[in-house]
Design goal:
This protein is mainly alpha-helical. The chain has 25 helices and five strands. The protein has a five-stranded parallel β-sheet with strand order 2-3-1-4-5. The longest helix is centred in the N-terminal third of the chain and has 23 residues. The termini are far apart. The model has no long low-confidence stretch (mean pLDDT about 90).
Length: about 525
Amino acid sequence: MARPRLNNMQDEAEQLFSLSESALEKNQMATAIDACRTLNTQFPSHFAGWLLAGRIHLKLHKPEAGLISTARASTIKPNQPEILMQRAKFLTLLNRDEEALEILEYLAERDFPTAQLHADVAMMLSAKQLHQSAIVHYQKAIRLNNKIAGLHYNLAAAYRFIGDFTECERALECAIQRDPLDSEAQMMRSSLRPQTPDKNHIDDLLDAYSRVEGDDKIKSGLCYAIAKEQDDLNNLDASFTYLSEGASIRRRRMIYDVERDEQIMQRIAETFQPGKHIPSAVNKDAPKPIFVVGLPRTGSTMLERMLDSHSDVRSMGELDTLGAALTKHSIAETNVSPPKAEDLVELASSVDLKALAQTYMSDSIPQNFSESFFIDKLPLNFLYLGLIHQSMPDAKIIHIKRHPVASCFAIYRQWFRDIYPFSYDLSDLARYFVAYKKLTDFWQSHMPGAIHTVEYERLVEQPEVELMKVLAFCGLPWEQNVLAFHENTSPSTTASAVQVRQPIHSKSKERWRLYATHLTPLIEALEMEGIDVA
């Protein structure tokens, strides 16, 4: 007679689980939390309840609570991959990188019954720069289900990160075969090598373009791929036609006003207090940051790879830790979460510089870091140069720039994912560039000697001369390896991942001039602001 009671309890647990999960998917957090709490209180041995609690804690960015829920789940079912993945994420949020890595290394050696589990593990491994292990799990996922285009695309991305472009292209062919309208796969395939009259994908791309109905994102991506291949074939008018169409589609999909960015940059300069400094809040033996800043597509990745080839420097990539630290301490000041960008500008003038520096350093450097310097290559850190110099006076700041029109055109030609909204309209680009130049000129004039400027054109023409200056600025001895940056085997995840595997060249330096007629609105807008575009 006890069986109906057991069934009723199971039914009640499943009902609570379904209620909480449904509410979570609809972002009805109060209902999700209440139902999950009731489930785990009344049925503490219900594994799925603790798994769901972990999902809720991830959504709420509650890593300490997440470690508790995953520990409870692990007592019910030890070493479950879903729980271990959650736990690794929580440990990462708490900067307990070695413990997170230990879990990921354990998962990397396991086999799983489903393609999805292998794909999820591969995604986490790739996020930790463990791309070779990620490739193994993507391959296992594909062996279990080779029909999913996204698996082949993700495998291709991992190959691209490590510089294996042959295998990358092979994986992309598989992705595109399964979904010819996968515009991101099409764009990546087009970017892997210069296309030739005998070997290109233009006919396939035009066929896919003609079949797109009502999906602007796909059509825009295909336009960028066509534009790139037409440029390789020197069909300049056709290239720009598709490029401008793709950019216009992207711009129409965005809610963006460049005037807001102009005002923010102006206000950053107005609120800067040049006499405000603190002694270094960082342990003198701690690694020192090298900030490589500027606009995207100006050679920052190439410079980063050069410096990363030095034995006493390690790149940490494009870190978001400075902005996150500023936001964290601003929230502490105002109890407003999250503060608007305009609010951050005002709050920055009163932020605790010592706390900002300590938070940035602790969040940026992994455990057991052995090099003397680490690189933070987030381009838009140019906005924070005043705070960087004031809070971390030992930090090295390197600003890389290139010819104004070349810079804007390189940005305009790049399809970015969810960043740099000023990139898709020539008028927006001109206005953003002017505001950026005014702010970086302001930093140079108010912080003499704190910023070393590198001109992209000089770097590609005489790399040894320019790199000697950069290393001297950083207090580093010369090493010949920095000139062989293209042999650097460390992964690259930026838009320049293909170019940085090639020896230095100046092929793209003046290419914008071939498009000068098409770029007339941009050129005239820059000239009206007194910017030399000769």
